[in-house]
Amino acid sequence: MRNRIVIDNLAHVAFGGFLRSKDISVEIVGGKEVKPHSKPFMVSIQANNRHVCGGVLIKEKFVLTAAHCWGSLQDKQVNVVLGAHSLSKKEKSKQVFSVIKHIEHPTFKTQPQLNDIMVLQLNQKAKTNKYVAVKKLPRTNADVKPGTKCTVLGWGVTEDNSTKPSDTLREVTVAVIDRRVCNSPEYYNRNPVVTKHMLCAGDKNGGKDACDGDSGGPLICKGTFNGIVSGGQGCGIPNKPGIYTRLDDKYIPWIKNIIKSKA
């Protein structure tokens, strides 16, 4: 399964068993720019001042993202940027924090990619306002029904053969696809297996998807934060929809315990 982080190699990079070639589209397919500062919970996670992954502010001092992102963050200066619309402009709304601890899910695996979820603890509390706000976790364990329209957000790359992320925050609408369909021979053929702790979402004709730089960002369905961008094969390819870590009763108590223990 390919991860959806920003990478530096323009030629060929292996993503969890799938190979990304330079001639594969790497854009947040079918997306559009969001209204500036309309998603105040969005986070840009940066390594050496370069965007790598998205994330969500779930408490003033905690960010939720994908665990596989840490592979591109470790041994670098990691900052979390809140209140941003443009990554390049000096917006007064921005708040920048360092990460003092990263907590991957204890059963996170890369081959195959499972339990792809991580909490980042910031060096201090964010100041919430109209530009920076906390996004609540789901209140129930209810699954997301197939066909549900959801929104994916991120600063993922926007041009073929590019490793440069979008300067402004973008969104794309995708539909949740039944896990039985995603695991069928016509789709992923159980490689990877889409479990009940994952969501599968895209467009039956392709052309709408998250991609490089969007990992760790949210999947929001009817206003609820239901999933985290994890991976998929290619970007916007028919029958190869995005795969998301589903926020359910396997992960929510774990997240809450971390916040409580670090408070």
UniProtKB/TrEMBL annotation:
GO terms for molecular function: serine-type endopeptidase activity. GO terms for biological process: proteolysis. Keywords: Disulfide bond, Hydrolase, Protease, Serine protease, Signal. Residues 28-260 form the Peptidase S1 domain. It comes from the Eukaryota. CDD domains: Tryp_SPc. PANTHER family: GRANZYME K, KALLIKREIN-RELATED. This is Granzyme K. It comes from Latimeria chalumnae.
